[in-house]
Amino acid sequence: MRTEKKIDFSNLKAIYINCTLKNSSRKSHTEGLMKVSMNIMRSENVMVEYLRLVDHNIAYGLMPDMKKEGKDVDEWPDIYKRIMSADILVVGTPIWLGEKSSVATKLIERLYGMSGEMNDKGQYIYYGKVGGCIITGNEDGIKHCAMSTLYALQHLGYSIPPQADCGWIGEAGPGPSYMDEESGAKNNEFTNRNTTFMTYNLLHLANLIKSNAGFPSYGNSRSAWDDGTRWNFENPEYR
Question: Most buried residue, 13, 82, 165, 166, by most Cβ within 10 Å?
Fold first, then answer.
């Protein structure tokens, strides 16, 4: 086996947001699998932050701060700052009726509400950040949930590396979940391999982007477009 050169990921930060329906007083099987990925990152000296969104009072809506829209409480502005301080966002969600959780949908909606903001290159705000997802459940739907989550993240501006999702599901119907010993999930070769590959793919892409001072702005800067720059675009009306 050839020896691979060690890569330094210590300048990166990742935030893992668990979109379980359970608050932190209860065991989350999604958190169990997320910890596998988080432990890999920590072993690579990556700064890792973790939170359960349901522990925070996040209002529904698309404005940056829903308190200004009449809501009594909205902790989203603080959560958003924590997301923006990270190079990598990993969304964890259980499967309910074949879909990601309602909490995951709320997270994506609030991210969407900020997507019109711009970074210092005049690009949309999430350009240069990397996204992935972790899915668990007792029913089919890993790929479906990953598909909708990763589509949403890339549409907002996140960069998605190869194989940016992983997951575990038990047999169809009621049965043991990821952290239950009888499930054997912690020894599942497929899940462990995919979780490892996903984690390193996120790190590689984030490292490449950060080492190149962000995602290139040539051809995608909203502020440049608004100022009249069109690069090689040629409006067919004027041909």
Answer: 166
Cα–Cα separations (whole angstroms), residue 128 to 41, 62, 169, 215, 216 = 19, 22, 32, 5, 8
Would you say 198 and 166 are in contact if contact means Cβ atoms under 8 Å apart?
yes
Q: What is the pLDDT of residues 11-55, one digit of tens each?
A: 999 999 999 999 999 999 999 999 999 999 999 999 999 999 999
| Residue 125, CA atoms < 13 Å, CB-side half-sphere | 14
3-state SS, residue 134: strand
Backbone phi, then psi, for 155, in 5-degree steps?
-65, -35
Query: What gap in Å lies between CA 214 and CA 180, rounded to an integer?
Result: 41
* DSSP reduced 3-state for 15: strand
Distance CA 218, CA 232 (A): 10
List phi, psi (to 5°) of 100: -65, 160
Q: Residue 235 above 80 pLDDT?
A: no
Query: CA torsion 90→94→100→101, rounded to 10°?
Result: -100
Q: Three-state DSSP class for 231?
A: coil
- Distance from C-alpha of 80 to C-alpha of 28, rounded to nearest angstrom: 23
